[in-house]
C-alpha cells in the first residue's frame, strides 16, 4: 500500500518535470535554428527574470486574475476565452476614471477606479453571456468576436475621446496621483498592493469552491450539467454567473494594472494576458495556489524573454512557442502520465530482479 | 472431442486489482459456451485477453491445440477469433456492406470493389441463413440488425470462434429470440460461440455449457442441462440470492401522489396521453411497458424536471405541478433516475459529495446559510456506504471509478435515505449485477413496509410483477389499465403493453 502511494506521487511529480523538459528541448532546437546558443539564451532568460523580480511579479498579477476567471469557468464546465477584451475594458475604464475625475481624495479615487474597471469587464461580458445562456449561441465564437470588437473599441477611445497630451503616442493621459495604488516597495522598481488582491482572490476562490454550498453546486454543474439539473440546480444561472464574475475579475485585473503599474492605458495594451490564463488554469486543474505559481512562471517568461532578445538575440516570439508547446503537452498530460508510470514500473521491476 | 480454445493458468494483474487469477478455461468445437459472473468478476478481461486486447501477466492460450501468443487484435483475428462488442463498432453513415468489409476490402489495385463486397456478403448471409440488406445504411436499421451485421463482420473475416459480449442488453424480446435462432444455426455450421452474460434466461436457453467466474477465479464449468438458474446464480454470487425483498402485510394507506389527466408533448410527439393514477402509503405501484412508452416523461414531470402541458400532480394534498425540482425533493420525493451516469451522479466528484446531490440545501447539510456542513455530510455518506454495503476505497473515491452496481447503490442510498414520503424509482436495477439488485429490491420493499409510497418504473416485466402491489401498464403514452398484482398474468400484461386487451381491475 505504501509502495503504491509512493509510486503515484513519483508519477505526479515526474509528469510536470517531463513536460517542462520536453518543452525546453523543443525550444532549444528552435533557438538553434536561429543561430543562437540555447544555453546562452536560457541563461539570459533566467538572469533577466532574477534581475527584474519585481517586474516579474507585476506581470504575474493580470495573468493570475485571468487564470482565476478561466478556472471558475472550467469548474462550471465552460471554456472562457473572452477575458482578453474584458481585461482591456477594465484597463480602459480604470484609466479613464483615474485620469478624468479630479479633486477626490485617494481613499475614494482608487476604489472607484477599481470598481469601475470591474463593472466594465463584467458589463462587457454580459452580451455574450446572455446570448449563450439565453439562446444557446456558441460561446467560443461569441467571445472570439467580442474580443476583436473590444480591442478595436479600446483603440478608438485611446486614439480619440480619451487621447492623451502627446498626440504622437496612442495613450490615455496619465492618471491622477489620487488614483494611483499605494506601493509596498518603491525601489528599484515599484510593487503596488495589487499583489495582495491576487492573494485574497486566490484564497476566496479556494474557499468558495470547496467550502460553500454554492461552490459545490457550481462544481456539480461543471462535472455533469444533466445531473445538476436533476438535482434541482439552475445550470443556466451558474453559467451566466460564472461568465459575469469572470468578466469582473478580468476587468479588475485591467484596472489594477493601470492604477498600480503603468498609470495610463496605451495602444496594444495587453500582450495576451487574457489567453495566458487558459493553459495555467488547465495545467493545475483550477488549484488556486497552483495558478499563482503558474502565473509567476508565465510572467517570468515574458520578462526574461526581453533580456533574451537583447542579449542573446533570440526573438521574444520564442515565448509564444514555449507557451504553445506547453499547452500541447499539457493537453496530452494523461498520455505522458501513462508513459511515465509505465517507465517507472519497468524500472522498479528491473531493480527487483 | 475437439477443443477449440484452451486457456490455462491465465492471470491478469492491473494496478491494485487481480482481474483474472490462474484461470483454466476451455471451449469445445461447435458449442455455445456461456461465460457468466457478476460485474467485475473478470469475464470481459478474460475475453479481451483471448481477443488480443490485453496481454496476460501469466498463462498460455492454445487454439485448436496450437500454442498462440496474441500481441494485438489482428493476431487474434488471424487465429480465427471474432468478437461482437456490447457497444457496436459500426459507422452509422456507411452502408452495411462498407462497414463489414472495412479494413479488409476487396480491391483491384487501389480501387474498392463495392459490388464485389456486396456479393461476398450476400454469399456469407445465404450460407448462414441470415437476412440483411448489405446496401442499407447502418443508421437506418434496428439494433437487432446491427448486431447481426457485427456477426457477419466476424464471419466475413473467416472467424471460427465468435465471442459475443452481453449480446441481449439492447435487444427486444423478439430480437432475443431471433438471436437464439442465429446462434443455433452457427453452431450447426460448426462455429464455436462464447457468450458473456449475466442473464439467466439466455444462459438456460442458448448455451450448451456454462463457466462461472467469481472475483477473478473460476467457480466451475457445468453442462447447462445438468444445472438450473438458481444453482448458477448461487455460484455467481457465492450464496443464495433472494430477489424481491421481504414483504410485510401493511395496510394500504391514504393517497400520497395522485396524477390526474397528465398530458405532455415533445415536439410533435404526444409523450403522455391523459394519464391518471394514485400511489398510496405502504404500496409499490409498478408501471410496466416497453421502452419509450412515456415512462421517462412521467417521472420527469412528477419531479419537476419537465413541465406537463396539462393535468394535476397532487402530492400530500398540494398540486406540485410547476414546482421547482429542489422544492419537490425537499417535500419528500426521492428520485432514482433512469440513467445514473447521465443524470444521477457527478462522476468526477467524490462519493461523499455525490451522497448529498439534490439535497445540498437541506438545513442538515448547510450552516450559516451558505457553508457546507462538512462533518454532517461526511457522516451521512459514511452511514449510507455502510448501510448499503457500497464497495469502495473510501468516501473520497471518485464516483466514476466505482462499478455500475456500486454507483447505482450510491444513487439508491441517497434517494431512499432522503425520501420522507415517496420514492420514484425509474429502472432502479438497470445494468447492475444480481447482488446489487437484491439489495435494491430489499431497500424498496423496506421503504414500502415503513409506509412510504413507492412508484416503480421498469422495463423488466419480471421485476414489476415481483415487487408491485398494483401494476399500471403503459402503451405509447397511454395508461392501458391498472391491475392488481395478485391476479395479473404475464400474458395479460404483455398484451396490454402491446396496446391490446384493455382491461380494468
Question: What does it look like?
Answer:
The complex is a heterodimer of chains A (353) and B (505). Chain A contains 14 helices and 2 strands. Chain A has one domain (51-304): ABC transporter involved in vitamin B12 uptake, BtuC (Orthogonal Bundle). By secondary structure, chain A is mostly helical. In chain A, 77% of the residues lie in helices and 1% in strands. In chain A, a hairpin with a 5-residue loop joins strand 1 and strand 2 (191-192). A two-stranded antiparallel ribbon of chain A has the order 1-2. Chain A starts with a helix and ends with a helix. In chain B, helix 14 (404-418) packs parallel to helix 15. Chain B folds into 2 domains: 3-237, Rossmann fold (3-Layer(aba) Sandwich), CATH 3.40.50.300; 277-497, Rossmann fold, CATH 3.40.50. The longest helix of chain B is centred in the middle third of the chain and has 16 residues, at 173-188. Chain B is of the alpha/beta class and 505 residues long. In chain B, the strands form 6 sheets. In chain B, strands 6-9-10-3-11-12 form a 6-stranded mixed beta sheet, sandwiched between helices. Chain B starts with a strand and ends in an 8-residue tail after the last helix. Chain B is globular and about 75 Å long. Helix content of chain B is 33%, strand content 27%. Chain A binds chain B through residues 4, 211-214, 216-217, 219-220, 223-224, 226-233, and chain B through 15-16, 303-305, 324-329, 335, 337, 342-349, 353, 357-358, 360-361, 365-366, 370-372, 374.
